[in-house]
From TrEMBL:
GO terms for biological process: dTDP-rhamnose biosynthetic process; polysaccharide biosynthetic process. Gene3D superfamilies: Jelly Rolls. One of its GO terms (molecular function) is dTDP-4-dehydrorhamnose 3,5-epimerase activity. Keywords: Isomerase. This is dTDP-4-dehydrorhamnose 3,5-epimerase. Transmembrane segments: none annotated. It holds the Pfam family dTDP_sugar_isom. The active site is at residues 63, 132. Homodimer. GO terms for cellular component: cytosol. Catalyzes the epimerization of the C3' and C5'positions of dTDP-6-deoxy-D-xylo-4-hexulose, forming dTDP-6-deoxy-L-lyxo-4-hexulose. It catalyses: dTDP-4-dehydro-6-deoxy-alpha-D-glucose = dTDP-4-dehydro-beta-L-rhamnose.
Length: 183
C-alpha cells in the first residue's frame, strides 16, 4: 500500500492498495496502520466505522462537522462513486480548494479527508457501498450541510440527481454557511 498526497487539498491523502489477483478474484489490504502513521496520522484515532449504500444517481453531501470537525477515511467498497472534497479550513494553504475522485471497488483506494473539509459523493453504479472510518463519534448537533449545486463551487456532478435527503436538498449556499460560522 502506498500513500499519495492530494495536491488540491493540504493534508489529504490517497491510500492505494496493492491487490493480489488470481483465478479466485483478488485480495488487498484496505487499511495499514504503518502506512497511515508514515504520513503523520494516528491510526488509532479512528473510532467509528460506517457504511452507506446508494443507488445510481443518489447524491450525498456536501457534509462537514462544526467544532473540532471530523477526519475520515472513505472508500467505495462496492460499485463506483464520484467523490468530492472542498477545503473549508481558513488557515489552510488550499482554502476553498476542490478535489474530485472516482473511487471504486476495482481499485479499493481509500481517501483521507482532513477535519474541516466538506465531503460529498454521487453513486455512479446501480449499487454503490461507501465505507467510512471516522475519528470522532457522530454528534448530529454539529452537522453542517452545503448546497451540492452552489455555483461558487461549480462541482461537475456526472449524473442527474436521482435522489437526495431533504437536508441536502434544502442546504444553504457556501457563502451562507461561512457567514453563519463568522468567516
Amino acid at each position: 500500500m502506498k500513500a499519495t498526497e492530494v495536491r488540491e487539498i493540504a493534508g489529504a491523502y490517497l491510500f492505494e492498495p496493492t491487490p493480489y489477483a488470481d483465478e479466485r478474484g483478488f485480495f488487498c489490504r484496505t487499511f495499514d496502520a504503518d502506512v497511515v502513521r508514515s504520513v503523520g496520522l494516528d491510526p488509532h484515532a479512528f473510532v467509528q466505522d460506517s457504511l452507506s449504500r446508494s443507488a445510481r444517481g443518489v447524491l450525498r453531501g456536501l457534509h462537514l462537522r462544526s467544532g473540532a470537525g471530523e477526519a475520515k477515511l472513505v472508500r467505495c467498497s462496492y460499485g463506483r462513486i464520484f467523490d468530492v472534497v472542498v477545503d473549508l479550513r481558513p488557515d489552510s494553504p488550499t482554502y476553498l480548494g476542490r478535489a474530485f475522485f472516482e473511487l471504486s471497488d476495482e481499485t479499493q483506494v481509500t481517501l483521507y479527508i482532513p477535519a474541516g473539509c466538506a465531503h460529498g459523493f454521487q453513486a455512479l453504479t446501480e449499487t454503490a457501498d461507501t465505507s467510512y472510518r471516522i475519528d470522532r463519534p457522530h454528534d448530529p448537533a454539529e452537522d453542517v450541510t452545503i448546497a451540492f449545486d452552489d455555483p461558487e463551487l461549480a462541482i461537475p456532478w456526472p449524473l442527474p440527481v436521482a435522489s437526495m435527503s431533504q437536508r441536502d436538498r434544502e442546504a444553504p449556499s457556501l457563502a451562507e454557511v461561512l457567514k453563519r460560522q463568522g468567516r
